[in-house]
Amino acid sequence: MKGFYGALAKGGVGLLTIESTGVDYPLGIHHGEVQAHLDDDKYIPSYAELAKVVHQYGCPVFVQLFHSGPWHPTSWLGLQPISSSSLKKSELPYPDRNEPRGLTIPEIRTIIDKFGKAAERVQTGGI
Fold this sequence. Notes:
By secondary structure, the chain is α/β, with parallel strands linked by helices. It has helices at residues 2-10, 44-55, 74-77, 105-124, and strands at residues 16-22, 61-66, 82-83, 101-102.
């Protein structure tokens, strides 16, 4: 990531966005281990290194915080996807995904908190 985003920053782009950064592992991820994470403080040093690389070229960087919700692939770890409400298979945009279960209000609050903590982590990392 440092090499990729560093090269873009060096090339003179006006803003970089690190896309699909997961806030809830593993259920909130849909690209497996290769997807960027911010669900734990252990990732802060890596984001700090990335910020340093990008900022040396005067380029700001932004992180898109992400939860896969109903797009989580059950085939990856056997976990049932989740959604703000239950969805039928016919309502899903990807026919190869399993029906997600609807979240409870406490579970929704937990995920909201995970987004907030991820935002704090990325800010602590200098982004």
